[in-house]
Amino acid sequence: MGTVAKWTRRTFIGAGALVGGGLILGVTASPNRLKLSGEGVAEEGETILNTWVKISPDNQVTAIIPHSEMGQGATTGLAMMLAEEMDADWSKVGFIEAPATDDFANNELGRAVLVGEVNVPGSIFKMIDFGMLTVAQQLNFQITGGSLSIRSTGEFGMRRAGASARHMLIGAAANDWGVPSTELTAKNSVVSHAGTGKSATYGELASAAAQLEPPMQPTLKDPKTFELIGTTQPRFDIPSKVDGSAEFGIDVEQEGMLYAAIRQAPVYGGKVKSVDESAIAGRRGVKKVVVIDGESVGPIQTALGSQSIESGVAVVADSYWRAEQALANLPIEWDGDAANVSDATIAASYKDVLDAGEGKADVKKGDVEQSVDGGTVVEAEYAVPFLAHATMEPLNCTARVSGGKCEVWTGHQNPLGARGFAAKAAGLKETDVTLHNHFMGGGFGRRSEADFVVQSVLVAKEVDAPVKLVWSREEDMKHDRYRPAVSNRMKAVLGGDGKPVTWSNIYTNTGQNEPVDAPWIPYDIDNQLIRGAQHETPVPLGAWRSVGHTQHSFFNESFIDELAHAAGQDPYEYRRDLLAGSPRHKAVLEMAAEQAGWGSAPPAGHARGIALEQSFESIVAQVAEVSIDGNGKPVVHKVTAVIDCGLAVNNGQVVAQVQSGIIYGLTAALYGQINIENGGAVQANFPGEYEMVRLNEAPIMDVHVLNSYAKTGGAGEPGTPPIAGAVANALFVLTGERVRKLPLNQYEFKAKDVRPQLSQAGDWVSPVWVR
Amino acid sequence: MAVQIKVNGKDHVVDVEEEMPLLWVLRDELGLKGTKFGCGVAYCGACTVHVNGQPLRSCTVPVAAMQGQEVTTIEGLADTSEGSGELHPVQQAWIEAQVPQCGYCQSGMIMAVAALLERNPNPTDEEVEAEISNVCRCGTYQRIRDAVGTLTNA
Lengths: 771, 154
Known about the structure:
CATH class of the largest domain in chain A: Alpha Beta
Shape of chain A: globular
CATH class of the largest domain in chain B: Alpha Beta
Number of helices of chain A: 17
Largest sheet of chain B: 5 strands, mixed
CATH topology of the largest domain in chain A: Aldehyde Oxidoreductase, domain 4
Strand order of the largest sheet of chain A: 11-14-9-21-18-19-20
Helix content of chain A: 25-40%
Oligomer: heterodimer
CATH architecture of the largest domain in chain A: 2-Layer Sandwich
Strand content of chain B: 5-15%
Number of domains of chain B: 2
Low-confidence stretches of chain A: 1-12, 29-50, 102-142
Radius of gyration of chain B: 15 Å
Structural class of chain B: alpha+beta
């Protein structure tokens, strides 16, 4: 990540009265002029409110939350953090999602990025680093990504807002009753005074509290005394998701709205050469054919730096189905110059850069070239493919451009960024664009990108009506911003005790290998050299749930397993021995092994594999129990997982996120692969091409939360990385063959007659595979 | 052509091409947005509705085939004929087990499970797994199992 010097916190808290009575309070931050000078500074005195709380006279507390809901449950967790510090009655707490306007922007997140208070993934750092023009604007965003909502907005915003509100409410009661505030207690949205027996609800006190000065540095609770944080609370958004009433971007309805279907260039970077509109003339409901020139808006700066918008053709009609049908019958000729790009050319160029051996060192310590007496050298080459996000809700965006204004309705992980993308496409100022954010039918990083927003505005510019652009599943899959394919060469030399004296690797780095800690290992190895060899590809790339951690976790956790087997040692004990300097990692690993029954024999024909990964400041260990079915395919029966994310705010929701991450990562490990031929993606839809794990393949998941009270980590992503390695490691025990290339469904595995993993005494016995 | 269909107990006449899939008639002609578009090839099940009580993936079924059939969508699953506002037991179980994450697939998932339990109130785990092939990209499968378990063991 881009770390900047530590910076004195300058958080301000503002409060005011609500029309009709009540209190509104916001936490604001002010950019420090000294540290940020030269990079563009905010205007004198400029502050931006970020997290707000409203207390109305009817004693209702409303959290105003600057993040979008895509199923991760952040809205509920953030409201819990507010209510905890407020001592609010949880049954009287609700939320509204902040609109995408500057006033509600998550500037605390931006500030945290800029000053390095939170380890923010570099992909997101870039989003603010280059995506906006001034620091004031950089502070002005509401990204939902990088597993950041709780650990940034929650820690820096919600808790302070809650503590301040509580302080002011107590102050109002003390004034009213003429007693010292130290004699007052607050609980369940009521302030009371034991001496006089007086009490008043927050709602009754709110208007008087609004007249008081908010404390600039409210006292926060000791996490060990939390009563609400750490419990499991039902999510606010769930009732609307069981009766069909939740409104996703694709459900937007506007007066006079038309629909657009799109076909993008089959070759990445290709352009439209010609369109024969006569072929669809007179078709029912068809209004217009719009040729989209992606280059016309120039590159857009977004999550992973500069992004070019794909060109294509849109058909606008009075129904989505009619638009799609017309498009299917529309002859389009394309120009494209990347048609020679394929898996083969990409693999060849990966080989070239790895052979060249030039790489920027992520980690360099000790000397990996030293000679080790009698050392065992272990070398291996690993590779993982491009992956599509395949969100359940295909990409879509509705836009209207009219009278110098633009209105946009979509579900976006970065709504303020999306407003900027729309402004650029419309040729308008950001302040002339209104963005209405909606529930997202999955994000996983895909909905932080610009393309679908820009295209929808370009189409809307050509039509005098709101237009809803919907990508078909085929467009969604063939024009994703893929997780990068990565190849990686590993080498280690083991000393006399079987433990690695050196660890080195070089991997292909497409420039999107964020966060920078993704290739790091937690193990105590004195000599390390971890390098990324820069590599370019015309394949569009993006942030995919947990970003670089998915690739590197598979590489590293498979390779450390190889080393354990080469040393004839228990893969769990081997890791554990190397974690003396990482007590949190060790505790998580030990708990996972214990819960999975690592020391007991697995059922006949089953084997266990283990993996460990730190990502987004959370540590996850997983043990997968695997067998091989009659068709030579792996069956994952059970996954035991432990997460230490500091302190899980909404405990059950953290468990759900880890389960979610396991299924997302397992789907990729078993089936996920986007192949490139003739300059474009081969896979276009799910069946037989990009298969999904469904109920019949979903393992039993036994997830445990280990609260270490360390700095708050993320929960949305860290469950994803370890599973591929855990499954592959179990397969090794069953087959004696090391999987070094994903996905797993390309292989026909053969279980061999394996000597048990454990002796009768429960000690590890290195497997011996008999033909 | 004018197609007559009955959805959630109400008769509708829609003037659409007879090959327009039921999904798009429900969503864009009748404004019933709870039924979702996921893949367009009847793989993911986000578009699952009931036709005469049987689960059907509506994205590949021409509306003309629905003439005279009883279609039920997520909006009509609960018996709200008396304005009770009560949820269907599957919906209630989904809230209690806190199943949905992003929620996009859950309309179809709930419709598929409700149809299964109507036909077979006490399915085995294997029967549930064989029948419910809907995709949930958030991977809520464990809680789906939990929720179904509370309905079958009751």
